[in-house]
Structures are given as C-alpha cells and as structure tokens.
Amino acid sequence: MPITGHTRLTALLGSPVTHSISPLMHNESFRLLGLDYVYLCFDVKEDTLEEAVRGLRQTGIRGFNLTMPNKNKIVQLADRLSLSVQLIGAANTIVNDNGILTAYNTDGYGFMQSVKDAGHEITGKTMTLMGIGGAAAAICAQAALDGVKKIHIFARPTSRFWNRTEEMIKKIHQKTACTVILHENGDLPALKKALEESALLVNATSVGMAPHTGNSIIEDASLLTPHLAVGDIIYNPRETKLLSMARERGCPTFNGMYMLLYQGAEAFKLWTGREMPVDVIKEKYFSE
Ligand SMILES: NC(=O)c1ccc[n+]([C@@H]2O[C@H](COP(=O)([O-])OP(=O)(O)OC[C@H]3O[C@@H](n4cnc5c(N)ncnc54)[C@H](OP(=O)(O)O)[C@@H]3O)[C@@H](O)[C@H]2O)c1
C-alpha cells in the first residue's frame, strides 16, 4: 500500500533500535491486512524522550512502542495508565486517542501467550521467576492477573529495582488472589524448595544473553527436574545455557521468541483493533 496523506504512523522509541524485528512484523501485518499504517524506528534515549513524545503527540501518531531504556520514564509522560502499568511501573506501548496517551504493558501478555503456545497451563499453579527488571515485573503482574496461585521471585538484594518490586508485590496482594514472595538470589534452600513446588521456572534476567552465552542464572543443574517446565525470555541465543541444561535434565523448554511476537501482536491490536496474522508472521520471521 503506498504511503499517502492518510497513512497513520506507529513507531518504536529506544536506543539502540536498528536491530529490532518490530518494523518487519508490524509493516508486514499492515500489508497483509491492507491497513494504511506504517511502523518506523527512532533512536531516542531517556534524556530526549520527553521532547520526542511531545513532538509525536502533536503529529497525531496512532501509537508507539518503548524499548530499553524508555520503559520506565514513559510512565511519567503518559496521561492514563492501564491496570498492569499501575502494578508494574513500566510500559512498552502507548496508544494515542485524540491527544490522550494511554500506557500499556504488553510484555506480560506476550509472555503468558508464549507459555500457552509452548503447551503449558499455569493458572492456579506456582511459578519461580528469576529477576526483577522491567520484563520480570511485567511477567509477574500479568501472571498474577491471569490467576497464577503463587510466584517465587529471586533477585539480588542490591538491585535498584528491589524497592519497586516490594511496592508492586503490595499492590498485587491488594488487587489479585496471587501470593508473591521475594527471595534473595543467594538463598539456595529457598530456591530448591520453590522449584520443587513450581510448575514453571522463568529466567527474566539478562544472564545468558549474547555475548555472555556461557552464563546461567541457575548454576546447579540438579535443581532442574523433569516436572518443571523451563522458559527463558532471552531470544539471542535461541537456546541459552539454562535451556540447554534444562533440556539435558529432561525438562520441557521454550525461549523468548514467541513472547516477542505476542507482545507485538497485542500492541498491534491496541492500535488497529485488528488481530495480527500471527501464524504468517511466525512462519516468516520467527521460525528457527
Ligand atoms: N522476549 C521478549 O519479548 C523480551 C522482552 C523484554 C526483555 N527481554 C529480555 O529479557 C532480559 C531482561 O530485560 P529487561 O528489560 O527486564 O532488563 P532490565 O530491566 O535491565 O532487568 C535486568 C534484570 O537482570 C538482572 N541481572 C542482570 N545480571 C544479573 C546477574 N549477573 N545476576 C543476577 N541478576 C542479574 C538484573 O538484576 P539487577 O537489578 O540486580 O541488576 C535485573 O533484574 C533481556 O535479556 C532482554 O533481552 C525479552
């Protein structure tokens, strides 16, 4: 479809953005559905985000995604916050309705879809989550909203996100029936116990991401037993050290590729009101 005066703009604001797969998946989906939209990437850092958002609001942009390092600061710049953003304190999607910017976080939704896609049902069950960064918070909040019974989180007590996580847990306990327990990374007896009662272990830290592919957030492979499904939200490499350890121990595994796909599909729906043709996009850009 040619770009005309009617074409609506969507975008990604982050730094770096040149490696992103998002323009491919969104522009191809617009083309397949005959929607008059375009998706572009803009290199915007935290110190220029406010100015960029002010400008984009004036252009009448339909919406945009945020990636590192902008997921936290955007929350102060939006006019309205979805329930999950209120819980998490970070957003990855903005929808512009006639100048009113509403912030959403589709990372958690994307993750929960990827769990289903891998054939697992975790509603009413217990999961263990490694990490308390932006993606981990989104996963924790969405899992709680979707009916996971208990979430054990493991993180470094020195983390700059520790206090924010404690605040998030208080809100989750007020608004959902889920129990969330925050543990220190070094508490190995607690980790062993948490994994024994969990149906799913998720790595939401950057440990194991390229180029540091020799690292795993779980060092002792004997903690991984076949009753446990193991997910890693990292997608580069496709199989992290954690996933290869888990596979060798007989655990079912999945990586972060489909989380990436489904977080994009949810943003697409928020902007256009249409379902992304995920099967085609999966085949074209997300097959191994
Ligand atoms: N598949 C997807 O769609 C998707 C979406 C978003 C993110 N991701 C991936 O998820 C990962 C995290 O992203 P993010 O946006 O959440 O980043 P982030 O906000 O910077 O959080 C990173 C987390 O990793 C922890 N961490 C880093 N090194 C560690 C170590 N050596 N030991 C223990 N914890 C460590 C950090 O702990 P401290 O706070 O203590 O430093 C923090 O909890 C990245 O690899 C990213 O590519 C994937």
Would you tell me the structural class of the helices and strands? alpha/beta
Q: Strand fraction band?
A: 15-25%
Q: Give the beta-strand count.
A: 12
Low-pLDDT runs: none
| Number of domain units | 2
Quick check: average pLDDT? Answer: 96
Strand order in the largest sheet: 2-1-3-5-6-4
Gross morphology:
globular
Major sheet attributes: 6 strands, mixed
CATH architecture of the largest domain: 3-Layer(aba) Sandwich
Q: Count the DSSP helices.
A: 11
CATH superfamily of the largest domain: NAD(P)-binding Rossmann-like Domain
CATH-derived topology of the largest domain:
Rossmann fold
CATH class of the largest domain: Alpha Beta
Secondary-structure element order, N to C: EHEHEHEHEEHEHEHEHEEHEHH
Percent range of helical residues: 25-40%
How is this structure best described in words?
With 288 residues, the chain is α/β, with parallel strands linked by helices. It folds into two domains: 123 residues, 3-Layer(aba) Sandwich (Rossmann fold), CATH 3.40.50.10860; 148 residues, Rossmann fold (3-Layer(aba) Sandwich), CATH 3.40.50.720. The protein is built from eleven helices and twelve strands. It has a six-stranded mixed β-sheet, with helices on both faces. Strands 9-8-7-10-11-12 form a six-stranded parallel β-sheet, with helices on both faces. The longest helix has 16 residues. The protein is globular. 44% of the residues are buried. NADP nicotinamide-adenine-dinucleotide phosphate binds next to helix 5, helix 6 and helix 10.
